[in-house]
């Protein structure tokens, strides 16, 4: 969720570390709306234990009323969520706090692109949750991603990221394209390059001031998320520069980046949010967790204008975990909250609110979005679309540097071409230099 997505990372990490120096000494997180975090008992004068949860983007717990529900069930608990919008800012700060042994939230979210790094390098800093839960509740591959070689489970699965395409049917109609989700799905079925071909058709009669897609990076992320191998092979070897899946996704993204069909926005930046609100682009590669994001950022003016169609091919983009740092002052209570938030019943409630697709398969047959969400997306059968995608997503090997490699390609290489007019070869060279720096090559 949320993603992740999301440029010189070394510079950002250094800036984050610098900004944290004072906060670490004070033992506080600085990402909440009011810039404060309470790790103390009774800090609110009520005698309650305050549990803090660090997240990135919109997880949906607050929006679905889960925090309020839990606090009603546990009168001695107060919950405070500290949100950082971007994972490339969030995760370096978490790593710094883990290493310092202080300043962490009681629960820390871990994005799928960071989970292997956490498993391989930070496992000692997290509580073993496998002793606390029935692991059969989660998808086997989801548990495996958060399990160490010696069997320690450091994170409980939240959502997964099965893919669809979200589109503005009003803009499609003005461009002379079909608006029926079934017809559109057939037009681009089989390959993301077919989706790009539809974009070329859109641009022939595009409504003034609009583009077909938000960014080339979104097309890249969608395409590479359906590859059987991307940055690492099954033996843990780095293969980003040899991967057929990466090459195909890059080439597809370059078709977008060098055309006129992209709004050239950087995902999760304020201009991207404004693009949703202003109808700047007509479609976006749309994992399940993005449903709530679109509804939030497009606002009332987008209701009934958005629709959802099946993606060209099954793909996963995103998905997260909740971990409890050993530095938490309230480990027992934090573990109980993490278990409750990721239980099947709660995952179903988050799906109902914002279509974040659960990692607990027992609830799949009964998933229902809220009527308001269904109406917002023109009655699209969200459960069926995302369930069908989830059933055929290939299992991808992950590695400790998945996220920075992905960021380098999406946010350095692609943006060099899309926003700065560099050639695809120059963009690839820029991404390659960053990746080699990240890998210490």
Automatic annotation (TrEMBL):
Species for this entry: Streptomyces actinomycinicus
First and last residue of the signal peptide: 1-26
Pfam family, one: SBP_bac_8
Alphabetical UniProt keywords: Signal
Protein name per UniProt: Carbohydrate ABC transporter substrate-binding protein
InterPro entries per the UniProt record, alphabetical: Bact_solute-bd_prot1, SBP
Xref: SUPFAM superfamilies: Periplasmic binding protein-like II
């Amino acid at each position: 969720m949320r993603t992740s997505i999301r440029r010189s990372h070394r510079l950002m990490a250094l800036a984050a570390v610098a900004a944290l120096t004072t906060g670490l000494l004070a033992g506080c997180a600085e990402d909440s709306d009011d810039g404060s975090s309470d790790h103390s008992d009774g800090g609110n004068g009520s005698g309650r234990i305050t549990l803090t949860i660090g997240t990135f983007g919109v997880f949906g717990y607050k929006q679905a009323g889960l925090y309020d529900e839990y606090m009603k069930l546990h009168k001695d608990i107060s919950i405070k969520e500290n949100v950082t919008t971007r994972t490339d800012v969030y995760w370096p700060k978490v790593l710094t706090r883990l290493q310092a042994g202080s300043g962490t939230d009681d629960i820390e979210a871990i994005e799928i692109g960071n989970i292997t790094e956490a498993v391989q390098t930070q496992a000692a800093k997290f509580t073993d949750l496998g002793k606390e839960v029935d692991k059969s509740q989660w998808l086997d591959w989801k548990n495996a991603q958060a399990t160490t070689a010696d069997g320690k489970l450091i994170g409980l699965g939240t959502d997964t990221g099965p893919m669809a395409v979200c589109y503005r049917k009003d803009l499609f109609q003005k461009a002379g394209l079909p608006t029926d989700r079934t017809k559109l799905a057939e037009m681009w079925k089989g390959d993301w390059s077919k989706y790009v071909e539809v974009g070329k058709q859109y641009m022939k009669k595009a409504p003034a001031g609009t583009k077909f897609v938000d960014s080339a990076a979104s097309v890249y992320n969608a395409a590479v998320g359906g590859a059987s191998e991307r940055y690492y092979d099954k033996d843990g070897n780095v293969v980003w520069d040899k991967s057929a899946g990466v090459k195909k996704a890059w080439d597809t993204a370059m078709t977008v980046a060098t055309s006129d069909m992209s709004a050239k926005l950087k995902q999760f930046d304020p201009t991207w949010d404004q693009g949703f609100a202003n109808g700047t682009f007509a479609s976006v590669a749309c994992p399940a967790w993005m449903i709530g994001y679109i509804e939030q950022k497009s606002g009332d003016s987008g209701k009934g204008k958005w629709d959802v169609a099946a993606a060209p091919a099954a793909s996963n983009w995103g998905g997260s975990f909740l971990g409890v740092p050993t530095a938490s002052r309230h480990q027992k209570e934090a573990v109980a909250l993490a278990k409750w938030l990721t239980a099947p019943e709660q995952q179903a409630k988050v799906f109902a609110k914002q279509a974040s697709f659960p990692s607990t398969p027992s609830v799949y047959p009964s998933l229902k979005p809220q009527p308001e969400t269904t109406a917002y997306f023109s009655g699209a059968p969200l459960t069926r679309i995302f369930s069908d995608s989830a059933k055929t997503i290939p299992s991808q090997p992950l590695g400790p540097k998945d996220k920075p490699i992905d960021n380098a390609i999406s946010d350095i290489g692609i943006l060099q071409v899309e926003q700065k007019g560099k050639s695809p070869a120059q963009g690839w060279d820029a991404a390659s230099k960053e990746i080699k720096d990240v890998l210490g090559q």
